[in-house]
TrEMBL record:
Key words, A-Z: Glycoprotein, Membrane, Transmembrane, Transmembrane helix
Recorded GO CC terms: endoplasmic reticulum; Golgi apparatus; plasma membrane
Protein name stated in the entry: Cell cycle control protein
Pfam annotation, one family: CDC50
Keyword hit for Cell inner membrane: no
Transmembrane regions listed in the UniProt entry: 33-54, 66-86, 295-318
PANTHER family associated with the record: CELL CYCLE CONTROL PROTEIN 50, CELL CYCLE CONTROL PROTEIN 50C
KW Glycoprotein (keyword) present: yes
Amino acid sequence: LIWATPNHGLPENTAVKQQQLPACRLQLSATGILSGFFATGVFCLGMGVILILSAKSSTEIEVFSFPYSLLTVCFFPIQGNVYMYYKLYGFYQNLHGYLLSRSNSQLLESLPRALLIPLSSCIQDVETCAPFSKSHDGTPIAPCGAIANSLFNDTIILSYKLNSSVHIQVPMLRSGITWWTDKYVKFRNPSSSNLSSAFAGEIRASGQCSHLFMELWFYVWGGFLNDDFIVWMRTAAFPTFKKLYRRLSRTQHFIEGLPAGNYSFNVSYNFPVTRFQGEKSVVLSTLTWSGGHSLFLGLAYTVTGAMTWLAAFSMMAVHLKLKGKRFSPDDKVKL
């Protein structure tokens, strides 16, 4: 016989089991909510104005290079560090098949070492690089893939007219144009100091890049650690994009930047844009603490701040209209 007690099966009468512990409850009020919205709006509007003014303070000059190979322009002085970009219109680097057409194990030396895979087999790892994986005779392509074999290979030389009879080439640096992680983490050459022997048995002439260009690319310009190649392999999200090509070496006549005067762009036309009905241009630009000449970030902050203030004023109007009124459960509120 089991005698039932009044507390049989109930939890103990403690603060924990009876859920009577003290807790902090957020007490929201109309004043606090409106203050938060207004403060957020002020911050976003202020940041937007600052970013727009910062972008406007930078200098950017764009010169369309196609279909011309020699362009002469005259512009005002550009003070400070000057960067040269190439800009493409209508080139879709964001296509899914294009993004996947590469071999990271071929480009990265530290990965096969960590996995104890021979370097020679990784150089020949081209299975994910279709349609640029192997040549017609079955020879692996290095670098393989659609991204590497559509490399932008125009040569752009900027000249300055010092006087009526003397033209000097503006000194531009190829180094220092890549992200640090790309240069020293994501791309590595084979450990052999002789690139010719390291890539023996591979073909390096494919796609739109000429055989001479690819030979220079390997033996003179650093192989997988070529700065132009690394910049190109970081794909763009939109069909219109610009990529860093060179940066000004501030020496001799260009210590303060680019002086005012006449300049000539000599472009070796190697990258055709008529195939994809696009355009290309050369951009000279300076940078500020917030980046380049793009207004996108500043406009995004400004629009966000304006929408936040609009929502705050709407809620404040409703609050003032209904303030002081008491409603029963059966009342219907008409706004």
